[in-house]
Amino acid sequence: MEKIEQLNKISDYNDLLGVETLHPLVSIIDFSKCKPVNHGSLNFGFYAIFLKDVKCGDIKYGKEYYDYQEGTLVFFAPGQIMKIENNGIKVIPKGFALLFHPDLLNRTSLAKEMNNFSFFSYEVHEALHISTRERKVVLECLEKIEDEIEQRIDKHSSKLVVSNIELFLNYCTRFYDRQFITRDTINRGILEKFEFLLNNYLYSDLLRKEGHPKVNYFAEELHLSPNYFGDLVKKETGKSAQEYIHLKLMNLSKEKIFDNSKSINEIAYELGFKYPQHFSRMFKKETGFTPNEYRNLN
């Protein structure tokens, strides 16, 4: 079994690259100033964001390779494992990295916001490809953080560093929004496949046998991470993936209600409800009518 190197502290990674640790909880790395290194598998105990300027080995997360090229940002959260394959050759990579430990965020508003930056849980083929202009913004943010790290640590240091990290992450959110737009054709193809899969699920026996469809099911079928899939659906439809699935389920229930050959209980079971009363409660919440009242409208 391949050895996975555990990096719990910022200094662990700095030492690996021969970089001085200026702050115990945050670091900016310019890879062109690092010693040649042959990476293996690394398990980060902190957040790590890499701006790759040239390809210098294939980055893997899990079993998949990152789709990256010049000007690509890749994100790792604590506990995630990164593997770089470069055929055992020591290389000097080109680009930059921002590392920050979760302890840096203690008692800050950013700690509560980190879950909103869903791109830390995107899959490898969902990396952020930035433009020349966006790259300039990224480097300016990193420079501000680095300038603050190089200052003498005082009572303002952590607050200013965290503020600039939050600014950087907010820019990344904006850039991902742009990427969703510029990949509109691809995204529409994904949505069409989602619509096909959803209809197939709802109008087959899967609904009765497996219960209500889950977001994770469609994400897996489309080879996307649940977070990326959910963000894509939200950007394209204005609804969360779960809301969209619920809407389609309720539309189907309205169709079935008018089949007088079946009782409301039978329809509830066909729609994947274990208990008919749950269906009646949800239906009334959605339409303002009980299933029987809705059936008698016409």
TrEMBL record:
Keywords: DNA-binding, Transcription, Transcription regulation. This is AraC family transcriptional regulator. Residues 196-297 form the HTH araC/xylS-type domain. PANTHER family: ARAC-FAMILY TRANSCRIPTIONAL REGULATOR, TRANSCRIPTIONAL REGULATORY PROTEIN. SMART domains: HTH_ARAC. InterPro entries: Homeodomain-like_sf (IPR009057), HTH_AraC (IPR018060), Tscrpt_reg_AraC-type_HTH (IPR020449). Transmembrane segments: none annotated. The keyword Protease does not apply. GO terms for molecular function: DNA-binding transcription factor activity; sequence-specific DNA binding. It comes from Apibacter muscae.
